[in-house]
Amino acid sequence: MKKDNNISNFNQLIEVEHGKIGTESRNTYEQNSQMFIISEMLKDARKEAKITQVQLAEKTGTKKSYISRIENGKGNIQLSTLIRLFELGFNKRIGLTFL
Length: 99
Fold this sequence. Notes:
By secondary structure, this protein is mainly alpha-helical. The chain is 64% helix and 0% strand. It has a single domain, classed as Orthogonal Bundle (434 Repressor (Amino-terminal Domain)), CATH 1.10.260.40. The mean pLDDT is 91.
């Protein structure tokens, strides 16, 4: 971590560590952060539903290995697939917010 005594909030820390919005480093950080959030939401929903990765894959027409990759933040996921996982797998709807 870079040392900077002028950091007073989280956004400043992210900028120091990963650059300004729009830079390659910052874009990579933002993408990885979003994938982490999605993976944690999927894991939490699956555990709350008390189903295994195999059961979720069977309910949604995917493979267990794909569910595992998503939960470990290792794969890209299409929005249509994410919606299918939550709607068919957990009977939940997804809401999107654009900032």
